[in-house]
Design brief:
GO molecular function, one term: acyltransferase activity, transferring groups other than amino-acyl groups
Order of helices and strands: EEHHEEEHEHEEHE
Protein name: GNAT family N-acetyltransferase
Strand order of the largest sheet: 1-2-3-4-5
InterPro entries: Acyl_CoA_acyltransferase, GNAT_dom, N-acetyltransferase
Strand content: 25-35%
Distance between the termini: 41 Å
Largest sheet: 5 strands, antiparallel
């Protein structure tokens, strides 16, 4: 079964269900939560359902899917999500409601999903974050991801230039293997020292 239930000390990671749409709406409609994500905040439950169908239901239809609702054990109600693209570059993405920021929850959830991806045989994970969102980069570092390079992209649909930092966690490939898709795709790319 794809997207199997995962548990951690504080969390239940499971599939989103139709009854989770109000909780998902709260997450997707928050401007601050979605500030660094590649879409605009949703404005209705109808837009939330469309987002669910595009981002989560399609992952659940694949043989191997990683699209998790992040729920606290105390009530099993979604407070965030963690996803991994099944196809290259196996991009890890996550979001968490603001009330739970800086408590290690995104790290705990991302670590559990990364471990599952490794167990399932994914060769590596990548993740990118806007250079102006270093908190997201700290989550990547805490789960063992290594910074590889930065690149500038004209970010859509928001249509402004963003410098992204690309991180990678290798499982079944050489330690020095780097997924170069973004390096090759964008003219402005470089390695930062920080």
């Amino acid at each position: 079964m794809n997207t199997p239930l995962l548990t951690t000390e504080r969390l239940i990671l499971r599939r989103f269900a139709q009854e989770d749409m109000p909780a998902l709406f709260l997450l997707l409609s928050d401007e601050e939560v979605n500030r660094f994500l590649p879409w605009y905040p949703v404005k209705s439950l109808e837009e939330t359902r469309a987002f669910y169908e595009k981002r989560f239901a399609t992952a659940y239809a694949r043989p191997q899917g990683y699209a998790y609702a992040v729920c606290l054990r105390k009530d099993n109600r979604p407070v965030g999500y963690v996803c991994v693209d099944a196809e290259e570059p196996h991009d890890l993405g996550y979001a968490l409601c603001r009330a739970l920021w800086r408590q290690g929850i995104a790290t705990e959830a991302a670590r559990a999903v990364a471990a599952r991806a490794k167990e399932d045989g994914l060769p590596y994970l990548t993740a990118t974050h806007d250079r102006n969102n270093p908190g997201s980069g700290r989550v990547m570092q805490k789960i063992g991801m290594k910074y590889c390079y930065s690149y500038q992209e004209l970010w859509q649909p928001k249509n402004f230039p963003v410098i992204f930092r690309m991180y990678q966690l290798n499982f079944a490939c050489a330690d020095d293997f780097v997924h170069r898709k973004y390096w090759d795709m964008y003219d402005r790319h470089f390695v930062e020292t920080f």
